[in-house]
Amino acid sequence: MPHDPIRVADTRCWLEKARFDLDAGDADLAYTPPICGDAMFHAQQAVEKALTPYAWIFRYPGESEEPSRDEAEQALAIAREAYEAVLSRLPSEARP
Asked: Which of 29, 42, 48, 50 has the fewest Cβ atoms nearer than 10 Å?
């Protein structure tokens, strides 16, 4: 069964918004000195926006059950990878 085209379009929009946040975070880090707090804010926003539609793409219209454990674990893995990727770009003194 093909994915719902509306959910696919919504997912694409959310991922584009997440990409804008990642680009803004990159711009913050390009400043001298880097604007680390703002970069972390954009990182958090990017992860949130990327995860918002995550389960939509796997659901068909009319389904309302909770995401499966596998889907939740995949979403957390994606969030963790994004967080780690941002942390690796920050100066060590800015890392938690």
From this structure: 48
